Amino acid sequence: MILLFVEPLSSLFFVLYIVCGATDILDGSIARKTKNTSAIGAIFDSVADFIFIMIMLFIMIPIIDMFFWIQLWLISISMIKAISLLTGFIKYYSLAFLHTYMNKITGVLLFAFPLLYYWFGISIVAALLCSFASIAAVEEMVINLTSNKLSYNIKSIFLK
Question: What are phi and psi of 114, to 5 degrees?
């Protein structure tokens, strides 16, 4: 939340941003190493990641000159993710945020977005990020549609 009160893309912003990402990675690593993982913890982690992404969108959208094709692509990805989550909720009575490899790669790219945007601009970064996010969203939806039980830590539709 502190990022809301810092000038976007400033030195302080990047320092705080990296600290936020590092603590997110660290808490998951510590939980796994100490065998303190749980389904509730995985859900809270996914919800916290979602809130972080929403805060970043709130910060970045006003300062990015976003092309219409990017907006359409983001809306499409959001719709697929919403259908996937709704499908998971109907089938499993739970928020089905899956921790697939593609979702993890997309998460890393999302985290790197401000840095990549700062260095490369919106077109290259949006194409890269939206490509991975599209694959991840479709994969997650296929898993939720075809699986008989909810498995948060499924790695891929190809590695069942």
Answer: -60, -40
CB 84 within 8 A of CB 137: yes
The string of DSSP codes covering the chain is -GGGGS-TTSHHHHHHHHHHHHHHHHHHHHHHHTT---HHHHHHHHHHHHHHHHHHHHHHGGGS---HHHHHHHHHHHHHHHHHHHHHHHHHSS------HHHHHHHHHHHHHHHHHHHH-HHHHHHHHHHHHHHHHHHHHHHHHH-SS--TT---TT--
Query: Where residue 160 falls among pLDDT bands split at 50, 70, 90?
Result: low
Q: Name residue, tokens 């891929």.
A: 156
In the chain, what is the straight-line distance between the N-terminal and C-terminal CA atoms, in Å? 37
pTM assigned to the model: 0.78
Give the burial class of 51: count Cβ atoms within 10 A of its Cβ; 0-12 exposed, 13-18 middle, 19 or more buried. exposed
